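We store sequence with structure; for instance:
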Amino acid sequence: MNPEAENVRRAWARVTRWLDQHAPHNAAALRGPAHPKEISDAESALGVRFPQELWTWLLTNDGVQMADAARTAPDTAGTAPGGAFLPSGRHLLSVEQIVQVARTRAGHEAMAPSPDPDPLCLTWHPDWIPFAVETDWLYGDFIDTATGRVGSWSDGDLNRFGVHDSLAGYFHALADDLRAHGRTEDGRLTW
């Protein structure tokens, strides 16, 4: 088995184990695995190859459940109860939402191109794959396919790169934060 795949699998298992034991309402918001065809179709739609770590995670978990309104207006509606459990109220994206967010971010860059080609200043780059966002999609986390590292974007601020060395590193850090700082109320995570 690929070491990257095994590392992300172990990291994600740490997160889900904590949620199952301490925050069952948040655990219930997680979706099942994505279908491989969905992932390969998303790669084709975005014109970028997803890293092995992302494939492995998506084949285990396809983001979180969305509220009913999110099915008709995904860029303005929130997650189902318990879905936005990441720090800063972010939620994990499904394969379908990955494509929607990436296209939206790319559209913003196309409408108002950054005058500075420095990736720190770009609204979006085609090599970036989003995997977690706040409800309004103005803040989120992405994998840079050129490096495999996790970065983040925020509206009105510079992009950050190397936030984590990998998706597995992101999930390991999340699991550590859950153990150290995660509190629950009525089966839901509170930070």
The two ends are 35 Å apart (CA to CA). Residues 69-76 have pLDDT under 50 and may be disordered.
